[in-house]
Amino acid sequence: MSLDLVALRRGTVAAARMAVLAAGPLALAGCDSLASLNPFDTTEKYVMKVEPDVPAEKVYDDGLGRMKSGDHEGATRKFAQLSRNYPYSEWARRGLIMEAYSNYEAQKWEDAITASKSYLSKYPNGKDAAYAQYLYAMSNYNQIPDVTRDQERSEKALTALQELVQKYPKSEYVSDARNRIQVARDQLAGREMEVGRYYLERRNYPAAINRFREVVSKYQTTRHIEEALERLTESYMALGLSQEAQTAAAVLGHNFPDSPWYKDAHSLVQSAGLEPREDADSWISRSFKGLRNLALGG
Description:
Layout: E1 28-29, E2 33-34, H1 56-68, H2 72-85, H3 90-105, H4 109-122, H5 129-141, H6 152-167, H7 174-201, H8 205-218, H9 225-239, H10 242-255, H11 260-270, H12 283-295
Antiparallel strand pairs: 1-2
């Protein structure tokens, strides 16, 4: 998404500020004393110089023009200039959101984060607050790494996107934010699965269960949930906790009867002479109770 790059015209441009610079030589008179400066001495030359400020409107338009030509760095400088030269004006507010946007377009994620956070701090109720929140969230989102690495950035992106939905429910960015939330959640679940499989391969079953439990408890709507339930079945069976293994398999079968992961879980419990059977008091059943009620409209 992009901010409308057409500058709004409001009122007249402020008059240029006048700066008077006067300079004159201070001559030495004689060897022992300095001559007094006579204010009425017509031989002294004073030069008046006019240094007009560049109107804020022109600075803003210059920034827009630079963005259009692909000079995002130059555009950023122009928009930042508005905050310095006109700190309490509407132009400063516009310049700050455009500074965030131009950094975002240049993929300078950290600079975009800084500018968007500054906007939210200075103008929490500003007309572009929802967009600033979106830029902040997306600047984190675009730095999400693969599941083999630390997911701190995914967590930041998820939190920022959820705040966008909660604080600005009528914003035009909400629909996209909801889709990004699902992707971020899937990424976090994927990380838990990655670590859980690592422990499972090394037969550290309690550590593996803790990771798969995170997925079942927090990320039930992600694509990893079916495998997580099967891996729980596998881990519990390895520890001899057959009741929990049966429950995991049963919940998997109830919710995803056609899943290949359910076939694996079913075969696993059957190999021990058991059948999938749900224990209503199990944490697994309780985790899925809310999801079932939601699906039924309860």
